[in-house]
Amino acid sequence: MTRTAQELYTAGLREHFGPALRELGFRGWRHSFALPDPDRWAVLGVHAEPGDGRVRYTVNLSVTDKAAWDGRRVRPDANSPSGLERWHSPIGELLPVGGEVWWEVAPGPRWLVAVEDSVAAVRGYALPELRRRLRPEEREPYLGRAGLDGVNGALAAASVARIQRAELVDGVLELHGAWSRHDPVAEAVLAGSARGFLSVRDRRYRRVRVLDTLGRTLWEFEGHRHAD
Predict the structure, then answer these.
(1) Predicted pLDDT of residue 227
(2) From CA 124, how far away is CA 143, in angstroms rounded?
(3) Residue stretches of the chain with pLDDT short of 50
(4) How far from 36 is each of 57, 95, 135, 192, CA to CA, in Å?
(5) What are the boundaries of each domain within the chain?
(6) 139-222 carries CATH number 1.20.58
(7) 109, 3, 17: which is closest to 58 by C-alpha?
């Protein structure tokens, strides 16, 4: 018997999306997930709209101080902003395409592709941004998306994933992106990018650390010591 779009969507969240997010460190189920933190709610909400034999859904994100939330045990709903958030955003604002992003589930052999793509978007963009927003005081932004355009253009020309974020952390320039330790081309191109960053002799950092989207260190590159 062919399952309806609603049945497939429900199964996709229960059997694929939810377990994948819990492996990434989220807690929750169905349409609401949160990263554990003693001081703030970092929440991911799934908002769905059924119709015309399909279900389309998107993801919203929010960070709220628990003190502002008045100690309530029920976490905020990222799909329904309360005005108490430190930050709130649809996931589309974090993706390279920008704007609204929706995934559609419809009956057919490829119905799970949308679910898998949404998990990849959470892993590559939503999770790093929520982690950064949880502790903004511990990180000093270095370059935003516009400032990385030149370097990302060179990476794209070499078919290497773009730098998603560049931050200064304790005297180290951290580059975050969807790379793998087992990709020698990525290592070589990123080593060249690191040399470029180090060549400007910015006194705020002397090393470049390359991390994947889960925050795992892949490679580190050392610069020359600055003269006093």
Answers:
(1) 45
(2) 18
(3) 226-228
(4) 24, 24, 13, 36
(5) 5-136, 139-222
(6) no
(7) 17
